[in-house]
Amino acid sequence: MLELKNLTRRFGERAAVDGVTLAIPQGQMVGIIGRSGAGKSTLLRMVNRLTEPTSGQILHDGTDVTALRGRALRGWRTRCAMIFQQFNLIQRLDVLTNVLVGRLNHRPGPLATLNSLLLRFSAEERAMALDALDRFDLAEQALQRADTLSGGQQQRVAIARAMLQEPRLLLADEPIASLDPRNARVVMEALRDVNRRDGLTVLVNLHHLDTARRYCGRIIAMQAGRVVFDGPPDALTPERVEAIYGVPEEALEAETPQPSAA
Amino acid sequence: MSEFHPAALAAGLPRAGDYFARLLPDLRWATLLAGWETEGSIAFWFYRLDKWALLLVETANMAALATLGGGVVALLLSFLAARNAAPGPWSYRLARRGLEAMRTVPEIVYALILVWAFGVGPLAGIIAIALHTTGALGKLFAEAIENADMGPWDGVRAAGGSWAQACRFAMLPQVAPNMVSYLLLRFEINVRGASVIGFVGAGGIGQELYLVISQNYYEEISAIIVLIVVVVAMIDLLSEAVRRRLAGDARA
């Protein structure tokens, strides 16, 4: 169970996220929708503390995530994986090494850390990484440089990296906003697969309401940093959307999301 | 304030020209390729090539060691001195000011102090050049890091990677080609620096160059300068080849 209590983040005077309170049971697939600048990204980035909350609290199975520091914080980030709109792979490294980044915090001790800094990984870890790549049909690309892959492939590498963390949660920040429709579908299906088969809680920021309705069991709509809708996809009718945003659904979706906005 | 007088320039220019004219070797067509005992031959001009070659190798060695040593320290400090990668504002400020101080002091000043401490010889020269190199490269490295894309950094941090791991995985592969470029350029600069630093007794060809300048052995001055230019040109060709190979390299 992930709980957000009155979570707020201010950038100067403006509140990007304004007093959000949510409870998300383990294993849910939650779509977060809203316009660019509604605070979706900031909300997700606060959950794994890439962005620090100004006030409020994040709890996961009773642990106060907002109070974690140092090693404990890294432990939380390992349990709470994240994928990004721009994939955030290391372009000049090969795909396999990119996936192995997911194991970095699973190797305790200074010797293991030193080995990781020399890009040395054990045979078991490599096998794990290859398995993860194979699951997303990328085993053949394992030794290619990440920048030789298409966007859809890169996002699947990012999901494979996330899976190597053996997380309980997966945060996905606009994972398909930079992809064409076919690749978007492949990536969304991969997310649904890790949600159903591995029992991960998936929080995904989406721009398209249709996508959210098709893949998510629960939809949260945000507007100006606040949660304005929280319920099952059926309840989010086009009339409801127009009531919330003041424009019809088509007009909302015509706005393009800004790449990697805060 | 600056004592720039056109008259002094007019009077001095012919003298400078005269000095350069004296530097020119006395080469004659008839005996150009003759042995080292024949006046007017190239061999006569470079009659101490064996000694100078050894000194030049020592000079290049000093430069190489100083560049590598300074480069390694600069690499470690640059992550602390880059605004986007520094673990905290204090480390950023401290590392920045430290690097500044290190490169503000000219290497010849370091050399003077270190010759006094370690005695005459290349060791003082190597440390002197390495100190200055650390300051100069550290700043360039830090700026390369500041220009890097922060996406991979977020990726590694979000995977639970430590600061050092983020530096290694997210940053180094992006900036390594740039850093190697700067390192090779610095090597070239350091060869030049190492050939002057001998003036104060810190090893290399400089000691010999200082000797022939102070004793007005004009032809030997030009011979040594020609040799230094040749060595620097060779290093430039070499570093170009290295750069080209690294550009196609997948793992950095």
Task: Decide which structural class fits the backbone of chain A.
Answer: alpha/beta
Biggest β-sheet of chain B: count, sense, barrel? Answer: none
Could you please say which CATH topology of the domain at 2-91 and 168-254 in chain A applies here?
Rossmann fold
Radius of gyration of chain A, taken over Cα atoms and rounded to an integer in Å: 18 Å
**Terminal-residue CA separation of chain B:** 51 Å
The CATH architecture term of the domain at 2-91 and 168-254 in chain A is 3-Layer(aba) Sandwich
Q: Reading side by side through the largest sheet of chain A, how are the strands ordered?
A: 6-7-8-3-9-10
In percent, how helical is the residue content of chain A?
A: 25-40%
Q: How much beta of chain B, percentage-wise?
A: under 5%
CATH superfamily of the domain at 2-91 and 168-254 in chain A: P-loop containing nucleotide triphosphate hydrolases
Question: What is the CATH topology descriptor of chain B?
Answer: MetI-like fold
| Percent range for β-strand residues of chain A | 15-25%
The CATH class of chain B turns out to be Mainly Alpha
The major beta sheet of chain A can be summarized as:
6 strands, mixed
Quick synopsis:
The complex is a heterodimer of chains A (262) and B (252). Chain A is an alpha/beta fold and 262 residues long.
Summarize the helices and strands and which ones pair or pack:
The complex is a heterodimer of chains A (262) and B (252).
Chain A: E1 2-11, E2 14-24, E3 29-33, H1 40-47, E4 55-60, E5 63-64, H2 70-79, E6 80-83, H3 95-100, H4 110-117, H5 123-135, H6 151-164, E7 169-172, H7 181-197, E8 201-206, H8 209-215, E9 218-223, E10 226-231, H9 238-245, H10 249-254
Helix pairs in contact in A: 5-6, 6-7
Chain B: H1 6-23, H2 42-45, H3 49-81, H4 89-104, H5 107-118, H6 122-146, H7 151-158, H8 163-197, H9 206-214, H10 218-247
Helix pairs in contact in B: 3-4, 3-6, 3-8, 3-10, 4-6, 5-6, 6-8, 7-8, 8-9, 8-10
